[in-house]
Amino acid sequence: MEKHDVVILGAGAAGMFCAIEAGRRGRRVLVIDHAKAAGEKIRISGGGRCNFTNLGIAADRFLSQNQRFALSALKRYTQWDFIARLDAAGIAWHEKTLGQLFCDGPATQIVAMLLDDMRRAGVTLWLETTPGDVRTTPGGFVVETSRGPVQAASVVVATGGKSIPKMGATFYGYRLAESFGLPLVETRPGLVPLTLAAQELEALKPLAGVAVQGSVTAGRKRFDEALLFTHRGLSGPAVLQASSYWREGQPITLDLARGMDAAAHLRKARSEAGRVAPRTALAQMVPEKLARHVEALAGLNGTLADQSNATLDRLAALVHGWELRPVGSEGYRTAEVTLGGVDTDALDARTMQARNVPGLHFVGEVVDVTGWLGGYNFQWAWSSGWAAGQVV
Length: 392
Description:
Elements: E1 2-9, H1 13-24, E2 29-32, H2 40-48, E3 51-54, E4 62-63, H3 71-76, H4 79-88, E5 93-95, E6 100-103, H5 108-120, E7 124-126, E8 131-137, E9 140-145, E10 150-157, H6 172-179, E11 184-190, E12 194-195, H7 198-204, E13 211-213, E14 215-218, E15 221-223, E16 226-229, E17 233-235, H8 237-243, E18 252-255, H9 262-272, H10 278-282, H11 288-298, H12 309-320, E19 322-324, E20 328-329, E21 337-342, E22 360-362, E23 370-371, H13 376-389
Parallel strand pairs: 1-2, 1-10, 2-7, 10-22
Antiparallel strand pairs: 3-6, 4-23, 5-6, 8-9, 9-10, 11-21, 12-17, 12-20, 13-16, 14-15, 14-18, 16-17, 18-19
């Protein structure tokens, strides 16, 4: 039977980072993944440029039953630490918007850096190897794999969530947690486009492909970024962000002209060009197709001069507060992350170890910690992987 100090299940961002840290401490580390290549989610992320972290890391930008759980790891291995790692490797990067950092070149640079660091740390990598049952033994654990059983003092579960199943996402990490009696927080797709009912989609069909720099509010959270109308419903960064806070049956509110005053603009247009249609004035603020739709939605007829202040205010209220009620999301197929996961109450925040199973650790997306869009989830992967790597 193969014997190692540490077996890490999953060769994604968190698993690879944990392996490097443990290997640098002189631990004999084996990383197992069923995929053909390591770091595939890193490779495809950010349009192939990898949005690897964010300058604005803070607790309120992570969703969890215990929002403060992530702070221990995030404060001990920060975005600045990872940036320094890239700088040392000669990987150029830039800030795109809202603190989001991307590679100047392809994301494969980061994968190559991690694989090189693993090799230098003496880490063994088994790809195209399916992990099976994990059981405790007097000396630690035995992990069944398609290559045969492996023995280790510590096991780190870094198998990710359910998002993007075509990349090989599975339920494995959650089932493993349950087999050891760890509770799970309900999982659901996060950072995902929202879908609308067929009747509503029919009315919105002319808007497919229209984008605006607006805002989306779900519950008490408002996100000021681009939103996009699609043939299935709504997408764009603001919608993806809001989707993590939206629950079935709840409405969302769109502001189509963020930072503008639609009421004042319409009244001014009425005084200067009263013979034009309201949609004409509105088209100076939003795309023309959207202006037509909102005018119709408000039930306006005639010219601007025909409209009372109350009518223009009703139109402006729609521009800044159009309420829609999604019927669902596009699901794990297009979700960037999985919300929920292994309950943080069952884990030690400093070591990521299961409180009742010494030597068993959970890192990355499999844990009930989910960041905003914009590099937050990668930073959680680096930080949680690093934290476990210091102790396994």
